[in-house]
User: Which sequence fits this backbone?
């Protein structure tokens, strides 16, 4: 499974990349902005895109909506340091495949969401 990580926190990106790759996911790229993410998606064709809900000055939710409009081939999973209960209304309106708190991010959790299971 090919994965793109979109987050404005460089430290998180490196930790997430290491954990996901150790668990067998292929992190094909990273992006810190919505524009860079859209370019990366076109160029790299990832299977799953992890998008931080709060992407610096930009909205990860708006990016997720744009990614969903591109095609249905990719799973978009929102991630955040916030608990799901804190952002559940935002998530339910977003049309994404799922949500993972950053503390619970793992390859198995990503695979579960992509496969339509509860992580």
Assistant:
């Amino acid at each position: 499974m090919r994965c793109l990580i979109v987050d404005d926190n460089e430290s998180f990106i490196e930790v997430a990349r290491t954990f996901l790759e150790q668990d067998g996911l292929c992190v094909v790229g990273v992006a810190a902005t919505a524009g860079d993410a859209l370019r990366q998606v076109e160029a790299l064709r990832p299977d799953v895109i992890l998008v931080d809900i709060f992407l610096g000055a930009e909205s990860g939710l708006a990016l997720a909506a744009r990614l969903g409009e591109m095609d249905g081939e990719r799973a978009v999973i929102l991630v955040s340091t916030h608990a799901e209960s804190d952002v559940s209304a935002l998530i339910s309106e977003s049309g994404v495949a799922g949500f993972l708190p950053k503390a619970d991010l793992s390859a198995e959790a990503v695979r579960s969401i992509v496969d339509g299971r509860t992580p």
User: Anything to note?
Assistant: The chain is about 45% helix and 25% strand. The two ends are 17 Å apart (CA to CA).
